[in-house]
Amino acid sequence: MKLEFLGGAREVGRSAILVNDRLLLDYGMGSGSPPGFPVGDVAPEAVVVSHGHLDHVGTVPSLCSGDRRPPIHWTPPTRDLCRTLARDTLKLRGGTYDCPFTEMEIQRVSQVSQTHGYEEPFEAAGHEVTFYDAGHIPGSAHVLIDDGDTRLCYSGDFHTDTQRLLPASTARPEADAVIVESTYADVERPPRREIEASFVDAVEEALWEGGTVVVPAFAIGRTQEILMVCAAHDLPTYVDGMGQYVTRTVQQYPEFLRDPDALREAAGHARFVDGKEGQRKRIAEESAVIVTTSGMLNGGPAMTYVPEIAGNPTNLIAMTGYQVEGTPGRELLDTGSAPIDGDVLRVAAGVERFDFSAHADRPGLTEFLEPYSEAELLVNHGDRCAEFAATLRDDGYRASAPEIGETVEL
């Protein structure tokens, strides 16, 4: 089996791997400014997508340009989330850089889409492919690819702890080789219940003092998780941005959720913001929790809320997700200031980070890899891929960390 790493190698973002010159795994977009795209020019016979986050699916519509029409395989939630992200990309960013697709390509995606459930094998470009629940976001999958000689498990992004939104991933399909993500390979986080308790304590303290809490959150997965936490603790909550639409979307697929009833109740508990002129500024003056996109402060309604509350130390900005190097969210955590709309915003409000990540941490990665002691491991999707691969080698694994543009023969 031949693998070409076109993105996501030794980095977080623009994931893309070409298998045997025929089958493309993911085709993502980097979250920087300007965003990054996979390298090379590919024309795959088929595409398989692990899940609906921008860094894995953001450039998929461009594969339907010209006369190209490769079938695209994914779960039903991933299909819907891809289209949502693509249209959001056109709306928010299409005028700021050379977007590699248009509305026409987004419409073509629907024409070539083929959806599959978990553990239902299908054929794609001469390979047998099977999805397994990855526990990351609704519809996320480990992808098992069998070309008749080699069985490859592409982990995608995954989580080995139970969340309110999703159960933990327990699938460990038999494989000769594994491409494993390593986003949190150097982190051991506390149990989820402790993280949630710390978040709730900080929010309740800010609200008790009359402050406003802004929670920049990824629209897909994180927004729904935080809404469920807020509802469980009866915290007054607004939800704004694309997370509103995503919440409604994933409710259409209860079989991909841990507790559909709890999500429905959380959505009913929150007040949805319609974005009318002046509404957001009024809400920013309330003593309430505002869950809003974007999670890294690089767009969306957060661009209104954060400046509105930044000057008051009683207020709180609660960061809940991974912040890629070079994003405003990362700048805010590292320096206490953030570039917002071209200006450097100095923030007097409290800024705290709560690790609600839906990625496996170091113990979770170790647990996931235990059945693969005889397999070849290829580490990707992380800031310290080479270091984690070296650690795995010290532990007796055959592990390496491919670089962008590298070809690996299995």
Any descriptors?
7-stranded mixed sheet; alpha/beta; single chain; 21% strand; Metallo-beta-lactamase, Chain A; Rossmann fold; 410 residues
Explained architecture:
This protein is of the alpha/beta class and 410 residues long. The protein has two domains: 2-186 and 358-409, Ribonuclease Z/Hydroxyacylglutathione hydrolase-like (Metallo-beta-lactamase, Chain A); 192-353, Rossmann fold (3-Layer(aba) Sandwich), CATH 3.40.50. It contains twelve helices and 22 strands. Strand 7 (122-124) and strand 8 form a beta hairpin. Helix 2 runs antiparallel to helix 6 (242-250). The longest helix has 18 residues, at 76-93. It is globular, with a radius of gyration of 21 Å. The chain starts with a strand and ends with a strand. The model has no long low-confidence stretch (mean pLDDT 95).
Fourth-tier CATH superfamily name of the largest domain: Ribonuclease Z/Hydroxyacylglutathione hydrolase-like
- Assigned CATH architecture of the largest domain: 4-Layer Sandwich
What overall form do the CA principal axes indicate? globular
The span between the termini is 5 Å
**Weakly predicted, low-confidence segments:** none
Adjacency order of strands in the biggest sheet: 6-5-4-3-2-1-22
Strand fraction? 15-25%
Radius of gyration: 21 Å
Mean pLDDT across residues: 95
Instruction: Give the number of domains.
Output: 2
> How large is the count of helical segments?
12
Please tally the β strands and state the result: 22
CATH topology title of the largest domain: Metallo-beta-lactamase, Chain A
Structural class: alpha/beta
